[in-house]
């Protein structure tokens, strides 16, 4: 199952993109987890416990949410697709931002940031994400924070590999920043489809 038909219908019926995103990403059940509701609960419970946040702060995004990747133009594939988790929690965002700020000496030590495919540090990319209310763990520098993050999500991925290739997470400063990020994927889809 995927919600692509509902998204197309809403776009044709002039539902605003913001309402479409809110409805789809914040209220619909995760398409990829229909029939796996207990496993979904276990994943969310473990994330909630690990980060000491309310379970209601955790949303499922990407192709696992709607059954289709708007950005990558492909359907969710059980066992091959990732589970993208959105943690929407201001306090956690600030906590992790402060950890990286400290570990990189106010971002002055850029040698610890991963390199992109062109061999350039992802430090500016990481900071740009922060300015848009997104803590992108994939651009996080090496250090104790990244080590603990990868250890937790590696364990979670292994435990639930029957459904997902990897389980990844991003922390959002607020629901508004989460919605804006999802709007960018919707924009890519609309341009590709001419809607």
Which keywords apply here?
195 residues; alpha+beta; four-stranded mixed sheet; 12% strand
Contiguous uncertain segments of 5+ residues: none
H/E element string?
HHHEHEEEHHEHEH
Compute the number of strand runs.
6
Task: Please state the CA-atom Rg, rounded to the nearest Å.
Answer: 17 Å
Q: Total number of helical segments?
A: 8
Let me know the average pLDDT: 95
Biggest β-sheet: strands ordered side by side in the sheet: 1-4-6-5
Shape: globular
By secondary-structure content and strand pairing, the structural class works out as alpha+beta
Distance between the termini: 22 Å
The major beta sheet can be summarized as:
4 strands, mixed
What percentage of the residues does DSSP assign to strands (E)? Answer: 5-15%
Helix share of residues?
A: 40-55%
